[in-house]
Amino acid sequence: MSGKKKMLKIPGTIIIILLFIPVVLFFALLINHTNQLREEAKEYLPPGRIVEVNDKKFHIYTEGEGDITLVFMAGHGTSNPTLDFKPLWIKMIDEYRIAVVEKSGYGWSETSNSPRDVDTLLEETRKVLELSGEKAPYVLFPHSMSGLEAIYWAQKYPDEVKAIIGLDPCTPETIDLIPEPQKIQIYLMYFISRLGLSRFMPESEVGENLPLMESDKISEEDKNQYLAVFYKSAFTKDMLREINYLKVNAETVANNEVPINTPMYFFISDGQEANVTGWKEALTDYLSTNFFSKYMHLATGHYVHYEKADIIAEEAKAFLKASK
After folding, report:
1. Three-state helix/strand/coil letters over the chain
2. Which end of the chain is more exposed for a tag (fewer CB within 10 A), N or C?
3. Considering only CA atoms, which of 98, 195, 87, 78 is closest in space to residue 139?
4. Alpha carbon of residue 68 to chain centroid
5. Cis preceding linkage at 202, omega within 30
6. Residues 206 and 227: beta-carbon distance below 8 Å
7. pLDDT tens string for the chain (324 positions)?
8. Is 49-322 assigned to CATH 3.40.30.120?
């Protein structure tokens, strides 16, 4: 009697079916996501204006009638900048005009294949504002990584920047403090977003990733819109490429002098949310050579304009009046 065990042979048709199931699932998810995006695009139209720059459509939201325009500049990965800043800008429009420029791949703006170097980012923003009829000088409200763009703006076009109100903004020195993002994790999130798998997130995870969804700072209608745009504009290819340019952009800004004549007020988080050591100190030190600067340390997370909108609005108004 032979000691050899007979191997179980799997029929070829079963192998083909097993291989075919993931392919069918992939296309089913993609078709479902595409159809839902189409329906959501009809329901949630851009609340602002669409302008074309370099053959790409950009969305800019404006409100208010003040003589000075406050330009809100979103941090990296913010899927809906217009609503993301609403808890703050809604408190500013009684005295100022506000403008939220959504970069390529953000909010209602189209994605692009253009480089994400700081010069391109800045020139696109300036052109969108110009085509929308906004007039410099502006007061810049940069959040997070857009702090680099705001500082570079003041370096390159000082006459266009009346002041910078930093919302936990990045400076060249802080980039080295931020943990290096894991590219495999970023591309995985891109894949999840493009397939629409984020639609199946449990409610608890939605609140964790989108804190405004559990906030009373925006309406229920705003929250529905926020979620719809998140499904469209989370982890876009533009956002992925911005990460690749981050170090280069920081070096570009660092190679220019600190714009010491531009009034700056930084609202600084405790740095704990991002697990960054030395965050407060680096941002505070950056202002030390500025002729007219101020800072406030806030016991809150990185999105300071959510929980501390009242304080920031009051302080920013007083600062801008004092720095005239």
Report:
1. CCCCCCCCCCCHHHHHHHHHHHHHHHHHHHHHHHHHHHHHHHHCCCCCEEEEECCEEEEEEEECCCCCEEEEECCCCCCCHHHHCHHHHCCCCCCCEEEEEECCCCCCCCCCCCCCCHHHHHHHHHHHHHHCCCCCCEEEEEECCHHHHHHHHHHHCHHHEEEEEEECCCCHHHHCCCCCCCHHHHHHHHHHHHHCHHHHCCHHHHHHHCHHHHCCCCCHHHHHHHHHHHHHHCCCHHHHHHHHHHHHHHHHHHCCCCCCCCCEEEEECCCCCCCCCCHHHHHHHHHHHCCCEEEEECCCCCCHHHHCHHHHHHHHHHHHHHCC
2. N
3. 98
4. 23
5. no
6. yes
7. 445 555 555 555 666 665 667 777 777 777 888 888 889 888 889 999 999 998 999 999 999 988 899 999 999 989 999 999 999 999 999 999 999 999 999 999 999 988 999 999 999 999 999 999 999 999 999 999 999 999 999 999 999 999 999 999 999 999 988 877 777 777 888 888 888 888 887 776 776 778 888 888 888 999 999 999 998 988 899 999 999 899 999 999 999 999 999 999 999 998 777 677 889 999 999 999 898 999 999 999 899 998 899 999 999 999 999 987
8. no
Query: Which amino acid type is present at position 24?
Result: V
**Tokens encoding 26:** 């992939």
- The residue written with tokens 């988080």 in the block is 269
Residue whose entry in the numeric block shows the structure tokens 């920081």:
250
